[in-house]
Specification:
Helix content is 14%, strand content 24%. It folds into 2 domains: 100 residues, no CATH class; 54 residues, DNA Binding (I), subunit A, CATH 1.10.30.
């Protein structure tokens, strides 16, 4: 049986663009209120939207996730399609070391040198000890030795100059950020592959 509270259902907008993941419990709620239909998927050639009343009649196949009910097992959809929602929400990356590394293209923002993993860390341009905040505009990727030399000084005081002014990344369509962490094969045609 399936965990009803694990995000294993991909949510598509009415244009069949991936916009979210959800739990089977939420997918069943959306299907039962006609907010969404489940996709009956059989290989890459057959994908049919199915309303709730008909979904309940679908057989549970050998590889299907299911939940037990008093009436018998019900197949858990791997994908649902929203009936009326057509937008693709925008999202901004969260502020963390991985995303700063990505924003700065793996380059030290003081020397311009491409850094290998372990060679760089995050520097606060205006040190925290001097009131600097942890923000997109005050954090940059720096060569570890350069950051150590800079210590709690400003770049000017340390004889350094930023290659470019750090900025918050632009919002991107949420479709670009969705990942198939559970390896669900049905999702693959709807997800954008990372570079």
């Amino acid at each position: 049986m399936t965990d009803l509270h694990k995000n294993i259902v991909l949510v598509l907008n009415r244009n069949w663009q991936a916009i979210n993941t959800t739990t089977p419990a939420m997918a069943f709620c959306q299907m039962s209120t006609d907010v969404a239909t489940g996709l009956d998927i059989q290989g890459t050639d057959y994908m049919t939207p199915v309303k709730w009343a008909d979904w309940l009649k679908l057989p549970v196949r050998e590889d299907d996730a299911s939940v037990g009910t008093a009436s018998g097992p019900i197949r858990v959809p791997t994908i649902i399609v929203l009936a009326k929602f057509s937008r693709v929400p925008m999202t901004r990356p969260s502020l963390n070391a991985r995303n700063i590394w990505q924003r700065d293209n793996g380059r030290c923002q003081y020397t311009g040198r491409r850094l290998a993993p372990g060679e760089g860390n995050i520097d606060h341009v205006l040190p925290r000890s001097r009131g600097g905040e942890t923000s997109w505009e005050n954090c940059v990727l720096a060569d570890t030795s350069v950051n150590t030399r800079k210590a709690n000084r400003t770049p000017g005081e340390a004889g350094l100059r930023l290659q470019s002014q750090p900025m918050e990344p632009r919002a991107v369509p949420v479709t670009l950020t969705l990942r198939n962490y559970h390896g669900i094969e049905d999702w693959e045609p709807f997800l954008i592959k990372p570079n």
